[in-house]
Design brief:
290 residues; 3 domains; Arc Repressor Mutant, subunit A; two-stranded antiparallel sheet; eight-stranded mixed beta sheet; DNA-binding; homodimer; D-Maltodextrin-Binding Protein, domain 2; alpha/beta
Chain lengths: 290, 290
DNA sequence: AGCTAGGGTCAGGAAAACTTAGCCATGCCT
DNA sequence: AGGCATGGCTAAGTTTTCCTGACCCTAGCT
């Protein structure tokens, strides 16, 4: 417990970053996830910082923490500074590695929408190296090192594909489905992240059927199961288009329900005209420019 | 030599800071001094960064380094970000330790001007803890953690005392000096940092005397020597005022030469009204407010 | 009670950072 | 030319930081 004031040395950068993340996210656990470390590491950083400052930044509560007045007063400026730093860092990377493009997207989109388009992209621009990171949620644009984010959203960014939902299944299974009510008698697959899909679609088509079936945490896995005839899946237009085109999945019912959001593409930072990121974005949005 | 692109992990903060300092100062040695580490540490940081980026940031030359185009393109934004970070850090400290005031100044000023004023300051505001750092040159205002900087300058900040120079010596020695020309026959002390003082004064009074004598790297030491009768020193008004008042030093010649600069006080960041830093600045500039 | 979420703590080990000491090339100064 | 100073590089070794993994603790649910 050093009571004497600490000498005039800089505060550790990593501790400041940990504090900022914790303050912004409101929880050590979330901060730890963002920084890619364990919560214990964040605890230690914040503790070290508080010890150096001789004042508490958080009030510890049984569940979770709350910023003290001091912490609150300090976060905003720190957040701005780290935002600026992340921007500078990203720009530095982009300048040093001008042929690298990093895309962040949902696992399902990565496998079912993006992946099928990559061969054409590679063929058209072999010098560009595209890497894809699957995330459960869109990254903080001011912080992420990704150049592009591709996520379902209602607005913002550039619309790449409208989303609409409708049941899909293997052709064999489709033969057993004549009316919407028949869905009650077959397994109805669902994705845990999109667990309201069935509800929404059934309501939209005015059907009152109780559907049930296994839930998957990976949409791509549910699609595979549907292909294998394991049941009927609520398809998302852009994600099952390929399977429908190849005929391995079919849509037994005509009603397609728009869900008011589409696949949208953002860039975290302005992309210089002609940069690799800008070209990839162009390709994803419109196909390769002629 | 990893040719494969590195995974999408953050660049190390400390390496970025080292690079930024090196780029801004133009030399690894200066950056090392600023960061308070050895040059080897900076070398290592920059090298690590370059390796991560797969591109050179500096061109190594026989003496010194030069930024590459990439380095040049990246510095500015990084500098801004680290400036912001330093600002946030300083504010955080100030909020956490509202009674601490850090002053940066020249060693001579610290000993001869500031130090004599501290007892009154402490008496008037005992709750404020003032710490003083002696630096050879004014710190970078956007970066330093000091609250106040007190340095000789021609403009800027708040003028605290005009500077003027004139010979001073012990009363005994003064008895042997009648005309300016007599200076040629006694040791004339000088400070290595202010080595043109004699030249300036002699030119201003229109004298053509060759003065010689020992040089000191610490002005306060030269003052002590002058008090001990070791020779005549070129006195700086604010710094010898105390000794003149006590009679341990006298000015054998009347001519005082203003040198166009004064002791000036800056604050690195805006000081909230009533803050400890603001009160100390007030005291130093005007004496304690009634 | 038992469970869960969110932190705190501690020991140990990995990685980063720093220092020291010596080396090298260049250019300035005699 | 020789000597010296400058500024950076390198290798070895050490200290410090950082992180993990395992476990404890508390409050609120069920």
């Amino acid at each position: 417990m050093p009571v004497a004031p600490p000498p005039l040395t800089r505060l550790p950068l990593n501790a400041l970053r940990a504090f900022e993340a914790a303050a912004r996210t409101g929880a050590f656990t979330l901060a730890a996830a963002e920084l890619g470390v364990t919560p214990g590491a964040v605890t230690a950083h914040v503790k070290a910082l508080e010890e150096r400052l001789g004042a508490a930044l958080f009030e510890r509560q049984a569940r979770g923490v709350r910023l003290t007045a001091l912490g609150l007063a300090a976060v905003e400026e720190l957040t701005g500074a780290f935002d600026a730093l992340a921007g500078a860092e990203a720009r530095l990377r982009a300048l040093a590695l001008p042929r690298e493009v990093h895309i962040a997207t949902l696992p399902a989109i990565a496998q079912l929408w993006l992946s099928p388009r990559l061969p054409a992209l590679r063929a058209a621009a072999p010098e560009i190296s595209v890497s894809i990171t699957a995330l459960e949620a869109p990254p903080n644009l001011k912080r992420s090192l990704h150049d592009l984010s591709l996520f379902p959203a209602e607005s913002g960014g550039r619309l790449v594909a409208e989303d609409e939902i409708f049941p899909v299944c293997s052709p064999a299974l489709a033969a057993r489905l004549e009316r919407v009510e028949d869905l009650g008698s077959v397994p109805c697959l669902s994705d845990t992240a999109w667990d309201r899909d069935w509800e929404v679609w059934l309501a939209a088509v005015g059907a009152k059927v109780a559907v049930r079936g296994p839930a998957f945490s990976l949409y791509a896995l549910a699609v595979e199961e549907a292909v294998n005839g394991a049941g009927v899946l609520m398809g998302h237009g852009p994600l099952v288009a390929g399977h429908l085109a190849r005929g391995v999945l079919v849509a037994p019912f005509a009603q397609r329900v728009p869900i008011g959001q589409g696949l949208r593409l953002w860039s975290a930072r302005p992309m210089p005209k002609g940069s690799a990121a800008a070209r990839v974005a162009e390709f994803l949005a419109y196909g390769w420019p002629t």
